[in-house]
TrEMBL record:
InterPro entries registered for this protein in UniProt: DIOX_N, IPNS-like_FE2OG_OXY, IPNS-like_sf, Oxoglu/Fe-dep_dioxygenase_dom, Plant_2OG-oxidoreductases
Keyword annotations: Iron, Metal-binding, Oxidoreductase
Ranges for domain Fe2OG dioxygenase: 208-307
UniProt KW tRNA-binding keyword: no
Protein name: Fe2OG dioxygenase domain-containing protein
Membrane-traversing stretches: none
Gene3D superfamilies to which the protein is assigned, alphabetical: B-lactam Antibiotic, Isopenicillin N Synthase, Chain
Any one Gene Ontology molecular-function term assigned to this protein's record: oxidoreductase activity
Family of this protein: Belongs to the iron/ascorbate-dependent oxidoreductase family.
PANTHER family assigned: OXOGLUTARATE/IRON-DEPENDENT DIOXYGENASE
Annotated signal sequence range: none
Length: 360
């Protein structure tokens, strides 16, 4: 997406609202303010066939299936990581009631007053609790139609003290998601020809860095002019996402955008940059974006699961050699990569490009 030129000062809508929710619900908004307008990119017109089949992984086959069922699930998981960088997970064992409570807690947080939310704004990308709007107001040339809450939940658990039950619900939910991620990473390890716990050990997942990211995308009067989140890939290993029943996630597949239609009670999972690095490019982190609509607000809840902050991530030694499989990425400490991505504009896979070995 190419940004419109000469936007007004970032961080402030015309009526002075800090969060896009306040602006969208002001009752006087009939158009998109100029500092939220994106110009069209030719790729935007290339939306894939709505019947495109997104891979589905049955987690129960990985964790408790027969040897044949588990073998097939590992094969399917590897194929999904290689061809899509994205899959849906069913039979994950997380109760619908917990998912509903977690989504309700996120909704209640976004319903707090402007003053209450400002208590948690934070000032640095590694502040353990941070909420705001757009992505990075210090560098964003055009603002995104999105408010967010980011909370570090592992290895140290943090939580805002509002609304009631947010802390209890998020602690329970994120602990379970951490285990789901580890089970999926076992299967991904084996699909790469590595032993099941290779990624778990190499990435030090006992201290794996986990971030809860709640996103609110309010209804937009002219949705084709605004963007919830522009095309990007995620840092870390796996991002596991749920939403409030409102679609808006799109992923890039074979040069076209695919509208993601979630199966009821499923997790949406995408492989992230550090799976691409560890696999030496065999598995790709998927480019994705969030679009908005004019009818109803969308809430998504993503949990980013990464290595420990002090882990230097590089291609697995077992997947490289001196011949055709030379290392395609240089090692970088996860903390440094995270700071690099979060401190700059959200721009495709530009951060991953910085650790890619030049062919020149």
């Amino acid at each position: 997406m190419a940004a419109a030129t000469s936007p007004p000062r970032p961080g402030h809508s015309p009526d002075g609202a800090t969060f896009i929710k306040a602006l969208a619900e002001s009752g006087s908004l009939t158009s998109v303010p100029s500092n939220y307008i994106f110009t069209n990119d030719p790729l935007d017109q290339a939306v894939s066939d709505p019947e495109e089949s997104i891979p589905i992984i049955d987690l129960s086959s990985l964790t408790s299936g027969s040897p044949d069922q588990r073998s097939k699930a590992i094969c399917d998981l590897g194929k999904a990581c290689q061809e899509w960088g994205f899959f849906m997970v069913i039979n994950h064992g997380v109760s619908e009631s917990l998912i509903e409570m977690m989504m309700d807690s996120c909704r209640q947080f976004f319903d707090l007053t402007e003053e209450e939310k400002k208590e948690f704004q934070g000032k640095h990308v590694l502040d353990p609790i941070r909420c705001g709007t757009s992505f990075n107001l210090s560098v964003d040339k055009v603002l995104f139609w999105r408010d967010y809450l980011k909370v570090f939940v592992h290895p140290e658990f943090h939580s805002p003290n509002k609304p009631p039950n947010f802390s209890d619900n998020s602690m329970e939910y994120c602990k379970i998601i951490h285990q789901v991620a580890r089970e999926l990473l076992k299967g991904i390890s084996e699909s790469l020809g590595l032993e099941a716990l290779y990624i778990d050990k190499a990435m030090n997942l006992d201290l794996g860095f986990q971030i809860l990211i709640a996103n609110l995308y309010p209804a937009c009067p002219v949705p084709e002019l605004a963007m919830g989140i522009p095309p990007h890939s995620d840092h870390g290993l796996l991002t596991i996402l749920i939403q409030n029943g409102v679609d808006g996630l799109q992923l890039l597949h074979k040069g076209k955008w695919v509208n993601v239609k979630a199966v009821p009670n499923s997790f949406l999972v995408n492989t992230a940059d550090h799976i691409e690095i560890l696999s030496n490019g065999k598995y790709k982190s998927v480019m994705h974006r969030a679009v908005v609509n004019s009818e109803v607000a969308r809430i998504s809840l993503a949990v980013a699961n990464g290595p420990s902050l002090d882990t230097v991530v590089r291609p697995a030694e077992e997947l490289v050699d001196d011949g055709d499989n030379q290392p395609a990425y240089v090692g970088m400490k996860y903390r440094e990569y995270l700071q690099l991505q979060q401190s700059n504009q959200l721009d495709g896979k530009s951060c991953l490009d910085r650790v890619m070995v030049s062919c020149n």
